[in-house]
Amino acid sequence: MNRAVFIDRDGTINVNRRDYVKSWDEFTFLPNALAGLKALAKSEYKIIVVTNQRAVARGMMGLETLEDIHGRMLAEVEEAGGRIDAVYVCAHDVKDGCNCRKPKTGLLELAAETFNLDLRGCWMLGDKTQDVLTGKNAGCRTMLVKTGYGGKDGLHDMKADVECADLLDAAKSILGGN
Question: Active site includes 10?
Answer without folding.
Answer: yes
